[in-house]
Design brief:
Family: Belongs to the phenylalanyl-tRNA synthetase beta subunit family. Type 1 subfamily.
Strand content: 25-35%
CATH topology of the largest domain: Phenylalanyl-tRNA Synthetase, Chain B, domain 3
Number of strands: 40
Keywords: Aminoacyl-tRNA synthetase, ATP-binding, Cytoplasm, Ligase, Magnesium, Metal-binding, Nucleotide-binding, Protein biosynthesis, RNA-binding, tRNA-binding
Radius of gyration: 39 Å
Helix content: 10-25%
Subunit structure: Tetramer of two alpha and two beta subunits.
Distance between the termini: 86 Å
Organism: Halomonas aestuarii
Number of helices: 21
Largest sheet: 7 strands, mixed
EC number: 6.1.1.20
Shape: elongated
């Protein structure tokens, strides 16, 4: 938000220097980014009048002007500007004047004619960035001989304030003046705004079909305006000093009122409106050519201003080209409305637009301001363009307008937060100066929030207001007090830091991705996922909360592959969000992704690509830190993972995560040309462990038996191991798979699985008869329940 210091001082003028004023605004929480002069330095430029004008005798494009500069003598000047005319008031640089760029005016002869001075354009005086087509013409009331710098009040500064999104009430001179008045205990005196009496009774019908998004809409028909009229120089200058270029009087007035009061306005050409103005949602596929010439296709949830033939504007963002005011416009329909912040938030970015209007509406515009702004704009338009105003038509839904908000402030809570006790009358005075309604209660104050303060809702907001107006620099400085008692560490809990160290030790790098993801990416990886969509996302590709860590990791993989990083090993820890907002589950997860060669490039390294079992081994190394026997892997189907290379991860019989290879169809849809493998597991399950306990080593010999079973090809080895452990007795100390074979000697559809089993008794030597009984029980149970046969 840029504004002119002089314009602000027309509302409220504290006895402070420019820098002190900027510092005060910053200390109040409205950070000042820059303070710059409104014009470059120049000297000896005065207001002059072109008294006589004759063509140059030797040049078609030059004129010889006689200029009255107030010195008592006429000054001859040769001027080549196409718009110079007799009787004009102009800025005139006398001989010896120094213009921006250290350019000194000297006597000269142009095609043989003497010229003493220069009639200046806006760009030559540093008042315009682009080169001006002609000289700057001043109002006829400009006093001849007065210093141009004084006449234009150029000893002024542009102050740029960087407002946080919650302070939309300060996106206007009125709002900033209100803040400065509060800080300095000064009254704020803005322009007097009176209702404009209608000259005719003609109106244009207005129909609001979506009162929730547009609770208030006002419109007025103004007939017979002169769009070719010239915008007054004082308004052009105020707009320029606020960073806005003057266009035509109608647009300039709407921009001026927006800067002055904070209410965006729009004017339609009445000749291009048909039957009625309708505020409604766009119909899917409707198209609109905007004022900037861009043609867009509207989505069904976009609020538009339309007539009976189609959309005219995107509500609160930008108008359409064909209904805008042009040089042929004679009658205008002036719009002033309140659109709810959620109706505008995010809509502009969806279409690649960001306008001054959308910037204000999505932060919240005072719902009570629309009528005042319409009256102010009407009065200015009549003053500049003439015309005949009609009655102001209003369509409002009180049920959908923001209601009065009330909250309380406790004196004890205020003292606790500030570390300082403030007198009750000072607190009440601060709140009242801010425009809040205040009523003393037994514990503090009951406060009614004004319509322009969208950011005040809870007690902490009131504490912030009191603190910043009282002055942050007046609050006591205290060192925080901490209780540094040691907390007991649960030995059965695996710290997250240990899990991170383990992943790093396995060659992974930690990634930190956004909790927001692109909806199409989440849809590709988790088509059935339900997670909240953001009402006002950072960008369109970060508009839904992630239901899994997979989308962020896949996006990070794409980023790395696009930068010639062929070997990627990433892991991430963070929350995923599942369910609607009212029943939202936030689940901490640990996920990982691998891609590329198994080992880093090197002459002795393995160049083969990483596979499912490499990733499974990395995951099992994490499981071994806690309670490895509580985990199981079983075949499953996941929409993002390759069938047959995908497993459900179970913890104590409940689903805790997934592991597998990215599905080829998903990989193709994402434009990936290489395989990628992923897993994600719930952190609460990973961090559960058990307290280690010492078991005395047996002094007696081990007994080992190797068993080779013929089983169905699809049978998981884990099922066979579970059966063996159930029948092997309490002295089984180890069971593991050491060979899988398919080929000659094994029937089709089967595989040979070789397992090593080791028994050891803690206090005696086991005999062959005991071991044989256990082996027979294992073989019988495996045959009965799994169809397994011992291989001959």
């Amino acid at each position: 938000m840029k504004f002119s210091e002089q314009w602000l001082r027309d509302w409220v003028s504290p006895a402070l220097s420019t820098q002190a004023l900027a510092d005060q605004i910053t200390m109040a929480g409205l950070e000042v980014d820059a303070v710059e002069p409104v014009a470059a330095s120049f000297t000896d430029v005065v207001v002059a009048e072109v008294v006589e004008l004759t063509p140059h005798p030797d040049a078609d494009k030059l004129n010889v002007c006689q200029v009255d500069d107030g010195s008592g003598e006429r000054v001859q000047v040769v001027c080549g500007a196409p718009n110079v005319a007799q009787g004009q008031k102009v800025p005139f640089a006398r001989v010896g004047a120094v213009l921006p760029g250290d350019f000194t005016i000297k006597k000269a002869k142009l095609r043989g004619v003497e010229s003493r001075g220069m009639i200046c354009s806006a760009s030559e005086l540093g008042l315009a960035e682009e080169t001006s087509a002609g000289i700057l013409v001043l109002p006829a009331t400009a006093p001849v001989g007065e210093g141009f710098r004084d006449f234009m009040k150029l000893d002024d500064h542009t102050i740029e304030v960087d407002l946080t999104p919650n302070r939309g009430d300060c996106l206007s001179l009125k709002g900033l003046a209100r803040e400065v008045g509060v800080l300095n205990r000064l009254p704020v005196e803005g322009p007097t705004i009176a209702a404009v009496a209608p000259v005719h009774d003609e109106t244009f019908p207005v129909r609001v079909e979506d009162a929730e998004r547009c609770p208030r809409y006002l419109g007025r028909l103004i007939k017979g305006v002169d769009v070719t009229a010239e915008t007054p120089l004082w308004m052009v200058e105020r707009l320029r000093r606020s960073g806005i270029r003057a266009i035509d009087p109608v647009v300039d007035v709407t921009n001026y009122v927006m800067l002055e009061l904070g209410q965006p306005l729009h004017a339609f050409d009445r000749a291009n409106l048909h039957d009625s103005v309708i505020v409604r949602l766009a119909r899917e596929g409707e198209r609109l050519v905007l004022l900037d010439g861009q043609e867009i296709t509207l989505d069904g949830d976009t609020l538009v201003i339309a007539d009976e033939r189609g959309p005219l504007a995107i509500a609160g963002i930008m108008g359409g080209e064909h209904s805008g005011v042009g040089a042929e416009t004679r009658d205008i329909f002036l719009e002033s409305a309140f659109f709810s912040p959620l109706a505008v938030a995010g809509q502009g970015r969806r279409y690649g637009l960001h306008t001054d209007a959308s910037h204000r509406f999505e932060r919240g515009v005072d719902p009570a301001l629309a009528r005042e702004a319409a009256e102010r704009a009407t009065a200015l338009l009549l003053e500049i363009t003439g015309g005949e105003p009609g009655p102001l038509v209003e369509v409002a839904s009180e049920a959908h307008l923001p209601g009065a908000r009330e909250t309380t402030l406790r004196a004890a809570r205020l003292e606790q937060a500030l570390g300082k006790s403030l007198p009750a009358d000072e607190v009440a005075e601060i709140l009242e100066r801010l425009g809040l309604g205040v009523e003393a209660t037994g514990e503090g104050w009951a406060v009614t929030v004004p319509s322009w303060r969208f950011d005040i809702a809870i007690e902490e907001d009131l504490i912030e207001e009191v603190a910043r107006i009282h002055g942050y620099n007046r609050l006591p400085v205290r060192r925080p007090q901490l209780r540094l008692a040691l907390r007991p560490a649960h030995e059965a809990h695996t710290p997250l830091a240990r899990l991170r160290r383990q992943m790093v030790a396995r060659g992974y790098q930690e990634a930190v991705t956004y909790s927001f993801v692109a909806p199409e990416l989440q849809q590709a990886l988790h088509p059935e996922a339900v997670s909240p969509a953001l009402a006002n996302p950072i960008s369109s590709d970060l508009s839904v909360m992630r239901a899994s860590l997979f989308p962020g990791l896949v996006r990070a993989l794409t980023h790395n592959l696009n930068r010639q990083q062929s070997r990627v090993r990433l892991f991430e820890t963070g929350l995923v969000f599942r369910g609607e907002l009212d029943h939202l589950h936030q689940i901490p997860m640990l996920g990982a992704l691998v891609c590329g060669p198994r080992e880093p490039e090197g002459w002795a390294g393995d160049k083969s690509p990483v596979d499912f079992f490499d990733l499974k081994g990395d995951l099992e190394s994490l499981l071994a830190l806690g309670e490895p026997d509580a985990w199981r892997f079983e075949p499953g189907e996941h929409p993002a993972l390759h069938p047959g290379q995908c497993a459900r991860v179970l913890h104590r019989g409940e689903e805790a995560g997934w592991i597998g290879t990215l599905h080829p169809a998903v990989r193709a849809s994402l434009g990936l040309r290489v395989d990628a493998l992923l897993f994600e597991v719930r952190l609460d399950a990973l961090t559960q462990g058990r307290v280690p306990a010492f078991t005395p080593l047996s002094r007696h010999p081990e007994v080992r038996r190797d068993l080779a079973f013929l089983v169905r090809e699809e049978l998981p080895v884990q099922s066979l191991l579970d059966t063996i452990r159930a029948q092997a007795g309490e002295w089984l100390v180890d069971s593991h798979l050491f060979d899988v074979y398919q080929g000659k000697g094994v029937s089709e559809g089967h595989k040979s699985v070789a397992l090593g089993l080791t028994w050891q008794h803690p206090s005696r030597t086991l005999n062959d008869e005991e071991i044989n009984q256990l082996v027979d029980a294992i073989v019988a149970e495996s045959r009965q329940h799994l169809g397994a046969e011992l291989r001959a």
